[in-house]
Specification:
Layout (H helix, E strand, L loop, with lengths): L2 E2 L2 H23 L4 E7 L3 H17 L2 E2 L2 E3 L5 H13 L5 E4 L9 H7 L11 H9 L7 H12 L8 E5 L6 H10 L3 E5 L6 H5 L4 E4 L17 E4 L3 E2 L5 E2 L4 H4 L5 E2 L6 H20 L12
Parallel strand pairs: 1-12, 2-3, 2-4, 2-5, 6-7, 6-8, 8-9, 9-12
Antiparallel strand pairs: 10-11
Helix pairs in contact: 1-10, 2-10, 6-7, 6-10
The chain binds NADP nicotinamide-adenine-dinucleotide phosphate (NAP).
The site of NADP nicotinamide-adenine-dinucleotide phosphate has 25 residues, from helix 10.
């Protein structure tokens, strides 16, 4: 039976560390950390995600500055909202909730976020910092995967890692983080030939393809560590990932479940980025460096 990479339990543990850091630093900083989530329009899934983020903030003592703007907002209005948050001394992290309503281009808005307040770690400058191994906010989902591996004593050093997916959101930063941890990394995508032959070479396999249960028994070597980033609603109800968990469980050494694996860690890493930005701004000591891959 595979070891369960339990992101929900780890997220809870990390929230306690973050709450401790907030308690320890509040007096010196003179204020709690602040996270602003900017939501535009009425996408129902986004409403749920934003509510979850606000609840997580409350659990660790991070103040939420939610702003909800109508779908009819002009780009200039959104830009001004971001600039106001950049200038707001109470705000350490800014997140633009995606997707934006049709007709609004996210690119100039994401670029307008102060890179040091980039809670998502997806600003061009921060992706460059990751590439160069410089400190800065890290992309939340892959950083969450690295924290999951570390918490189970799974050291990527010297291992063969395969990442399925090359998005800027997950696959690319994931590959950079595994490489920075001294894994030998291959990135697969939709044009990769003979995917099963490639993924069978992986000691660590991270799947972020956005294809329900596409990874089956034929894709893994016995004893591999498999992290499933995908998340899908089944037509018949319930959730599944990009991995066929029933097929892999008897074969692999460790597997992250869906739900309860990578998902909860993504929200936690948003808080990590915010609390670290606050700590940096107020020159507070902290013991959170292990969470910056
Ligand atoms: P994305 O932007 O659609 O990228 C998918 C990547 O997978 C692309 O690089 C694509 O290749 C590749 N791909 C697609 N089909 C493939 C196939 N048959 N074989 C090999 N590679 C294939 O998706 P994403 O934003 O990275 O997200 C991936 C999944 O993770 C989604 O299910 C998403 O919902 C989930 N997700 C979960 C969390 C979380 O917190 N749990 C966070 C973010 C995303 P090409 O580049 O060639 O098109």
């Amino acid at each position: 039976m595979a070891l369960r990479l339990d992101g929900k339990a780890l997220a809870k543990e990390l929230e306690q560390r973050l709450a401790q850091q907030v308690r320890n630093g509040c007096a010196q900083a003179g204020r709690p950390p602040g996270l602003a989530v900017l939501r535009v329009g009425d996408d129902p899934a986004s409403a749920v995600y934003v509510a979850n983020k606000e609840k997580a903030c409350a659990r660790v003592g991070v103040e939420s500055f939610g702003a909800h703007l109508p779908a009819s907002s002009q780009p200039q209005t959104l830009l001004k909202a971001i600039q106001a948050l950049n200038a707001d001394a109470r705000v350490d992290g800014i997140l633009l909730q995606l997707p934006l309503p049709e007709g609004l281009d996210e690119t100039p808005l994401l670029a307008a976020i102060d890179p040091d307040k980039d809670a998502d770690g997806l600003h061009t400058l921060n992706l460059g910092r990751l590439l160069k191994g410089e400190p800065g906010p890290r992309s939340c989902t892959p950083a969450g995967v690295m924290a999951m591996l570390r918490s189970q004593g799974i050291d990527p050093s010297g291992k063969r890692a395969v990442v399925v997916g090359r998005s800027i959101l997950v696959g690319q930063p994931m590959a950079l983080m595994l490489q920075a941890a001294n894994a030998t990394v291959t990135v697969a995508h939709s044009r990769t030939r003979d995917l099963p032959a490639l993924t069978r070479q992986a000691d660590i396999l991270v799947v972020a393809a956005g294809r329900p249960e596409m990874i089956g028994a034929e894709h893994v070597a016995p004893g591999a560590v498999v992290v499933d980033v995908g998340i899908h609603r089944r037509p018949e109800g319930g959730l599944c990932g990009d991995v066929n968990a029933a097929e892999l469980e008897p074969l692999v050494a460790a597997l992250s479940p869906v739900p309860g694996g990578v998902g909860p860690m993504t929200v936690t890493m948003l808080l990590v980025n915010t609390v670290l930005a606050w700590s940096r701004r107020h020159q507070l000591d902290h013991d959170l460096d292990d969470l910056v891959p």
